[in-house]
Amino acid sequence: MASRSIHLAVIPGDGIGPEVVAEGLKVLDAVAPSSGLAFERTSYDLGAARWHRTGETLPDSVLEELRGQDAILLGAVGDPSVPSGVLERGLLLRARFELDHYVNLRPVKLFPGVSTPLAGVTTEDVDMIVVREGTEGPYTGVGGVLRKGTPHEVATQESVNTAFGVERVVRYAFEQAANRPRRKLTLVHKDNVLTFAGDLYQRVLKKVAAEYPQVTTDYCHVDAATMFFVNQPGRFDVVVTDNLFGDIITDIGAAIAGGIGLAASGNVNPDGTAPSMFEPVHGSAPDIAGQGKADPTATILSVVMLLDHLGAAEAARRVERAVAEDLAERAGQGARSTAQIGDAIAKRVSG
Amino acid sequence: MASRSIHLAVIPGDGIGPEVVAEGLKVLDAVAPSSGLAFERTSYDLGAARWHRTGETLPDSVLEELRGQDAILLGAVGDPSVPSGVLERGLLLRARFELDHYVNLRPVKLFPGVSTPLAGVTTEDVDMIVVREGTEGPYTGVGGVLRKGTPHEVATQESVNTAFGVERVVRYAFEQAANRPRRKLTLVHKDNVLTFAGDLYQRVLKKVAAEYPQVTTDYCHVDAATMFFVNQPGRFDVVVTDNLFGDIITDIGAAIAGGIGLAASGNVNPDGTAPSMFEPVHGSAPDIAGQGKADPTATILSVVMLLDHLGAAEAARRVERAVAEDLAERAGQGARSTAQIGDAIAKRVSG
Ligand SMILES: CC(C)[C@H](C(=O)O)[C@@H](O)C(=O)O
Ligand SMILES: CC(C)[C@H](C(=O)O)[C@@H](O)C(=O)O
After folding, report:
1. DSSP string spanning B267-295?
2. Sequence-ordered list of residues with C-beta below 8 angstroms from that of A41, at least 6 positions apart, any chain
3. Which among A162, A326, A149 is positioned nearest to A242, based on CA atoms?
4. Which end of chain A is more exposed for a tag (fewer CB within 10 A), N or C?
5. Binding site membership of A88 for ligand 1 (Cβ less than 6 Å)
6. What residues pair up with A76 in beta bridges, in sequence order?
7. Which reaction does this chain catalyze (chains A, B) (predicted)?
8. Which of chain A's residues have a Cβ under 8 Å away from the Cβ of B158?
9. Helix, strand or coil, per DSSP, at residue B13
10. Which among A193, A194, A195 is the best mutation to test ligand 2's pocket, defined by most ligand atoms within 8 Å of the CB?
11. In tens digits, what is the pLDDT along chain A, a chain of 351 residues?
């Protein structure tokens, strides 16, 4: 069959980023021939090394090039040699905001055979999707500092939330919930303290809920939600939440679903006005970089999300099955290198 | 011996609040005769009922009376019949802010015999103290809403952090760490995103650390911290963090230490310019109110913190031992009512 050509931008980034991205691409190469897609890849040198060399994080010209791509695969950014926040804000968050990734999609799913730190939970108990808002909330960077370094210093951070921004992400979450068997959507916020933002989320949830009578809605304060993730994860099906709460709860999500080495994510622009970006939830882990110790599974599962996003559902399921099979057999095996895991999964995909 | 007279304000509050407070006072009565303290109690009718009756949450006159007390014991506030935030902001947070409870102290300790949702952890793995800032950060209530109810609505919440506020809580946390065997202090924040506030915390930590060379310091992003609470809780000894992050991580803390029924807290004014307030971490749980189902242990452990705060360390240890013994024997027993648990612990204290 004729395959659709996809321009894929690849940002390996820092630390273990390049290693895990290599395995993600290996698996993508294995599935591509049968996916109906032909990938044309462009690699972008962004991250700590470039910043040290040129002072650039995400230059305007590169951003413009990225806009012309169909999708982005990112490894990880951040390095202890760069001041905290420079690459996170200047590269990662800049991409999410400029490319209008208003949905940060993070499945929390315990695969069979994977060990979880929770006692007595089954794969059925841990199977949810977190829809994290990606373009506003406390992540705007709005804020500042007054009288820095003096005893009278004041430092502020502002969470900015708009009806426009909240409604589009809530709507997306309802769509997700409507298409899952349990059809349940839980809003996670802290509306008893952050009353202005919380009230906006609550009113929007209520309004959109009227259009989805088949979806049950629930509300949970963020503090209680973190507790329920640990002792009643089965409460959750689809979760919608703000940018910061989403950041926090998806790390607990990763922990209960077998660790950060397995947690995938998609920074999605559902309107298609700019390319979506797929990345493992984990960071650059400089302490283990270059040693072949990183688990590439989170990146490979991010490739699954990329394939789904591009409409190649069959190819996505094929990779997902290969990952599931590999995970199911891991328990008995000794430690494997990053490349060995990638090879094993790629082999299952082709085989 | 002559006993020191203590004026104790009691705010039973809503839902299960009155039930658990009754047991806390029962245990306090049991230990008081040997504590060197004589408690004179005044009960304050605050919470949902009063708000419905009068529209008041924490009237100025009551606040002034509270200022004249030596300490406060609070049950829980909040009820579904009251709009979210009214009692939380108007009563609980107003008390914390007005009485300058800048340290919100929350031990996370797994007692022997208590079951935790985490597989394979021991009591040694879960033994930390979270020092949560209590009077600033995202809890200030600063913020607002523009064009409410329109498609152009903007809702903001501002986190306000001051050198004054951060330094005093960080200093308190160093004192705690210096007095514990492991002498480790971890700052939990999100300095790669909330760069202004995070940088202030980091600089203050570094400055105060110079005065405590015996204390090891560490830093952890809040998202990673929540994960480590679940899969490596032993990493933490004393944690210092902002008001919102502290709210969130102490609920996971409660979950890993056996549940919200056991989590105690103190809203402490270390300078003694106003009374400190002790309360269980749990809420008013209206669904089980009035049924004798609530676990009063969190309140009784809050009484332990109250006794310690008042300098009655021996009495505090006595109650703590009674709780520990009761907990160690719970596993084998059937369900007991709120009052039965209180009776059992009070009996051990007297006996
Ligand atoms: C690196 C950091 C800026 C980022 C975030 O906070 O969103 C990360 O934690 C994530 O969850 O993708
Ligand atoms: C009830 C609520 C305002 C409060 C808080 O957020 O501080 C509670 O969750 C707590 O942790 O004491």
Report:
1. EE-TT-SS-EEEEESS---GGGTTTT-S-
2. A8, A9, A10, A25
3. A162
4. N
5. yes
6. A13
7. (2R,3S)-3-isopropylmalate + NAD(+) = 4-methyl-2-oxopentanoate + CO2 + NADH
8. 143, 156-159
9. strand
10. A193
11. 578 999 999 999 999 999 999 999 999 999 999 999 999 999 999 999 999 999 999 999 999 999 999 999 999 999 999 999 999 999 999 999 999 999 999 999 999 999 999 999 999 999 999 999 999 999 999 999 999 999 999 999 999 999 999 999 999 999 999 999 999 999 999 999 999 999 999 999 999 999 999 999 999 999 999 999 999 999 999 999 999 999 999 999 999 999 999 999 999 999 999 999 999 999 999 999 999 999 999 999 999 999 999 999 999 999 999 999 999 998 778 899 999 999 999 999 998
CB A57 within 8 A of CB A86: yes
The predicted pLDDT at position B1 comes to 57
Nearest to B75 by CA among B284, B239, B268, B287: B284
Cβ distance of B195 and A231 shorter than 8 Å? no
Could you give the CA distance from residue A244 to residue B159 in angstroms, rounded to a whole number?
13
Alpha carbon distance B308, B326 (integer Å): 20
The pLDDT value given to residue A50: 97
| Beta strands across the sheet bearing A143-146 | A143-146, A154-162, B154-162, B143-146
As a whole number of angstroms, the distance between CA B48 and CA B202 comes to 40
CA–CA min distance B194, chain A (Å)? 7
Mean pLDDT score of chain B = 97
Q: Which two tokens stand for residue B61?
A: 């006159």
Ligand nearest to the CA of B97: 2
Q: Which residue has the tokens 């009820």?
A: B79
Q: Which ligand is nearest to the CA of B263?
A: 2
- Whose structure tokens read 């640990």? A230
Structure tokens at B253: 């803390």
From B155, B244, B255, residue closest to A196, measured CB to CB: B155
Q: Can you read off the two tokens belonging to residue A183?
A: 């059809």
Contact between residue B73 and residue B306 where contact means Cβ atoms under 8 Å apart = yes
Q: H/E element holding B185? A: strand B184-189
Which one from A44, A139, A172, A201 is the annotated catalytic residue?
A139
Strand partners, B145: B155
Q: What is the pLDDT of residue B333?
A: 80
| Residue A139 is among the residues annotated as catalytic for this protein | yes
Q: How many CB pairs under 8 A join A and B?
A: 213
Residue type, A304: V
Contact between B244 and A190 using a beta-carbon 8 Å cutoff: yes
Handedness of CA B18, B24, B25, B30 (dihedral sign): positive
Task: Give Cα B191 distance to the centre of its chain.
Answer: 25
pTM above 0.90, yes or no: yes
* Entry field: residues in chain B: 351
> What is residue A1's predicted lDDT score, i.e. its pLDDT?
57
**Measured between CA atoms, how close is B42 to chain A, in angstroms?**
28
Closest CA to A264 of A129, A95, A71, A115: A129
User: Annotated catalytic residue: which of A14, A100, A247, A308?
Assistant: A247
Whether A254 and B227 lie within 8 Å, measured CB to CB: yes
Q: Is B260 in the pocket of ligand 2 (CB under 6 A)?
A: no
Q: How far apart are CA B126 and CA B124, in angstroms?
A: 6
User: What would the two tokens of residue A108 be?
Assistant: 């929390």
Q: Is the CB of A200 less than 8 angstroms away from the CB of B153?
A: yes
